TrEMBL record, chains A, B:
It comes from Halopelagius fulvigenes. This is Glucose 1-dehydrogenase. Pfam families: ADH_N, Glu_dehyd_C. Transmembrane segments: none annotated. InterPro entries: ADH-like_N, Glc_1-DH_arc, Glu_dehyd_C, GroES-like_sf, NAD(P)-bd_dom_sf. It is an enzyme of class 1 (oxidoreductase). It catalyses: D-glucose + NAD(+) = D-glucono-1,5-lactone + NADH + H(+); D-glucose + NADP(+) = D-glucono-1,5-lactone + NADPH + H(+). Substrate binds at T40, E114, E150, N154, N306.
Amino acid sequence: MKAIAIRRGETKPTLVDVPRPAPDDGEVLVQTLRVGIDGTDHEVVRGTHGGYPTDEDYQILGHEAVGVVVDATTTDFEEGDLVVPTVRRPPAVGSNTYFDRDEPDMAPAGEYVERGIAGAHGYMAEFFTSPERYLVSVPEEFAEYGFLVEPISNSEKAVEHAFASRSAFEWTPESALVLGNGPLGLLTLAMLNQDRGPYKSFDRTYCLGRRDRPDPTIDIIERLGATYVDSRTTPVPDIPTEYEPQDFIYEATGYAKHAFEVIEALAPSGVAALLGIPEDWTFDVDGGSLHRDIVLENKALLGSVNSHVPHFEAAKESLAEFPDWFVDELITGVYPPEAAERAFETDDGVIKTVIEFDTL
Amino acid sequence: MKAIAIRRGETKPTLVDVPRPAPDDGEVLVQTLRVGIDGTDHEVVRGTHGGYPTDEDYQILGHEAVGVVVDATTTDFEEGDLVVPTVRRPPAVGSNTYFDRDEPDMAPAGEYVERGIAGAHGYMAEFFTSPERYLVSVPEEFAEYGFLVEPISNSEKAVEHAFASRSAFEWTPESALVLGNGPLGLLTLAMLNQDRGPYKSFDRTYCLGRRDRPDPTIDIIERLGATYVDSRTTPVPDIPTEYEPQDFIYEATGYAKHAFEVIEALAPSGVAALLGIPEDWTFDVDGGSLHRDIVLENKALLGSVNSHVPHFEAAKESLAEFPDWFVDELITGVYPPEAAERAFETDDGVIKTVIEFDTL
């Protein structure tokens, strides 16, 4: 079958021909419809994040997928069911504690592999197999955009943890800021602008980027009802004076200074969720001032990575609420597997691209 | 009546003679028994924290008090009741939102004054008045040590917020580290070593200081069953390798670098509560590495200041559980108001001192 992989020593994705996987009992064989490409995929291709499966000289890419069950073996799934797979799997050797409690997203380094990212083949192939418990059913209308459930689920987790961190007192957030206008930032901004769940508390939302108008991401930000903040004219620490202090901040830039600047941009009792994964970078901070500010204003900062099944379920609800125009504008390219290299190209017009293996 | 105050322009506490306050209806007149001295009092005396009441050229010190009701006016208290006052009060001008919801500890700067610290007279006087709602009843056996309820309440809040921040998943903390072997650090260490409430989950506790043996604080740490960590031989980032990664860290040093070093010392899914209030200090951090570590290991950091009435109630339970020897060893000096200057002296043998105005 066709698959898109990165080979050891190479820095571009390649179409490869690999054997179709055969499901064991308790596993499901899924025919892939679409697989999204995100920043992590680019990092895997560049070799700055993740790693190859043991003893393999290539890794099949992709961790944001939607597909159709074609062999349900002994599972409760039925042929024709539409499914989205989760990403983390138990390692070949080591503890399964976090998987046993259905919280693989909380597993520490070394206690998981990640399909398409670290130590396991991904979903960018005509078929993939998965144990039943790692597949989430989605409705038929998700055939085109169901691959977005995975990235949204990461933000659902971050929001859940952020609200939990403020649950010991009466927290009434009104303002929310997303750092980053890449696809994850825009998906999160759409999520925060819903009128359901914890999101309905946000009256005003902001999204930070560094683009000149006219720009399709700025158009999306404004059409969602949010305010675009240009980081070149308004650095993060200036946001409280230029706009307003932020009750919730979601960081999706991977820019390490943002992890510290958010403290200054938070409102009292505010919380920032960090999701970026920067490389080492040493710089100056006024640590005394930041430390004092966190304490005297009861601020919080938390890191969040990956997600588990209930976050996928929440993400399904969010995706169903998104306006149709939003996903249409977000997806700027749908490519066949043969055009993988082009699907991974990034230029100013590109927001999010997807590989289409099949359609319903 | 006698009171201990700091006068504008001076850097030592002085015994002053001021009029006895008269309670309004709904207020209580309290005869002070004991008032503890802590690091914040020293900062107020040095002029590095807090501020004088408007239009006053002195401030009565003290925010950790226990006393007896001598005039209950129209309140539900009765003469002879033992009480501990909370610290924050609404400002003369401004919003009372946080007081209306009984969460004054979550009020931002400018929306509160603090008795004995910022903008209001404290409790280091023979008598003080307070509205009924800011007084917490304590049992008669708290006459000597009831002033400890206030500092313990700050740690109860920090622990409550820390556990809340980890409530979205199955958190099973086992190890806890207190940074600082001052009185607040030792009180918190005793709290974490209780076999009740959330504390019973901690199997192993550690306390960081920078003292040579023999030292009374090290004796207390070890008698509590905790491990003493000397920061001169084991800096905070080395604690995971020298001892173990820490599920919970409580910072009570006010040393700004600790706010960042705790990230390295935390176990995956761990949380650090910061309580110190350092002055400005710019230094280098590997912000990229810290940011990545927070995210990939789902760590959290939160600031916590002050406390509200339910935290005082929790503190009463903790104080009642402390072994008798602990409070006896912790309080290294009980001084009459006339010896205030001496009560504020710090040398190696001093852990915590208290001014005694009266006894039951």
